[in-house]
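Morning. Coffee machine broken again, so started the prediction first thing and wrote up yesterday's gels while waiting. Chain of 178 residues, entered below exactly as on the submission form.
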Amino acid sequence: MLFADDTVAAMAAAVELVNSAEEPDTLTEIAQLDAFFDRHGYTGRHVHTAAELAAVRAQRAPLRRLLTADRDAAVDLVNGILAQHRAVPQLVRHDDLDYHIHAVPPDAPLEVRIAVETAMAMIDLIRADELSRLAICADDTCEGIVLDLSRNRSRRYCSPACTNRNAVAAYRARKAVG
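Came back before lunch.
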């Protein structure tokens, strides 16, 4: 594996959160936030309110800037996030998870935990000079973020929907020529 489990988990969650803003918006209801929280194994405070949903949705644009930034800009954004939230990295062990890093307390608001965990994960990508693992979807009609953790760096599309749409288009183009 290229990165630690918590780095992979935080990056996957951040990419999904950013991509939820693409049409159709997939984060409009508290139940969708609940599913996101569960799917990505978040722990700590989750208040299930419209205000929390709005605060998490508000993280999509700043996280998109972070995930699409060049290396030097990403460093500035990471440092800003960590300073803003007074992040103090600590090793913790809870539930069935072995030691991993938390940088804000479990009672910090969910949107803060998402921002800080993403910033902490970006530290690993920046230090390894692996920001090329993040890209914009190759589908001309999509602006989704692709997280490519494949060994051969072959992932081009942000979702199965974009992959399928482009495979069908390529098939139809081949059929039209032949």
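The chain has a mean pLDDT of 95. Going to sketch it on the whiteboard this afternoon.
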